[in-house]
């Protein structure tokens, strides 16, 4: 695996770090492939409780590495990858690095700082939470290159902002500062130290019933636009799976005995 995307385990928490600081963590093919591969590894990790996405250096991710448009891949090669949906996958090779974080059952927290443009914005939108430094700047920048955003943004942006705001961001590519990004829903909250805040949130999540956390994420993801007949049944199904289970009983006993829970 390339060293442009790094994986570090901190007990049940995984940190996935974009590691091209000299290029402002711009996304080239190695980053696309590294994020997708690591995401799949974590998806299969039953001991995982939370994932944190970070970027090395002063910027989370400045967007697509322009070498992709300057001879790195031909238009024919790019189109072939765009239209290739592997067996059993809902996302292509360019969508997977952003969408895989929604396929992982545990919460994914993006710690953002500096430029978070284009592909960087779309990767961040794939996380469940976005904790951003005051200097964070976001942009759906693909219109600059005469294209539309296509890294699973149709599954992420509409769940966060109004349709008119989404269209404005996509049609103009304008840069949104952290305060406005929080106001319109692109980021969860502004913090002085996003990485530390992300680990603090992960620690809090790790102290909760992991069975409930996993089902809670699936419940919201699967029912967000589902009809009531489906979403309410899903609530009932997941709740009956939890009630009386080992970890649910441990949550009860830990609260009654005023101690930290010991989940399995």
TrEMBL record:
Gene expressing this chain: echA8_2
Family as reported in the entry's similarity comment: Belongs to the enoyl-CoA hydratase/isomerase family.
Species annotation: Roseovarius albus
Any one GO biological process: fatty acid beta-oxidation
PANTHER family to which the protein is assigned, alphabetical: DELTA(3,5)-DELTA(2,4)-DIENOYL-COA ISOMERASE, MITOCHONDRIAL, ENOYL-COA HYDRATASE
Protein name as it appears in the record: Putative enoyl-CoA hydratase echA8
Pathway: Lipid metabolism; fatty acid beta-oxidation
Family annotation (InterPro entries): ClpP/crotonase-like_dom_sf, Ech1-like, Enoyl-CoA_hyd/isom_CS, Enoyl-CoA_hydra/iso, Enoyl-CoA_hydra_C
Superkingdom as given in the UniProt entry: Bacteria
CDD domains: crotonase-like (cd06558)
Gene3D superfamilies in UniProt: 2-enoyl-CoA Hydratase, Chain A, domain 1, Lyase 2-enoyl-coa Hydratase, Chain A, domain 2
A Pfam family that the UniProt record links to this protein: ECH_1
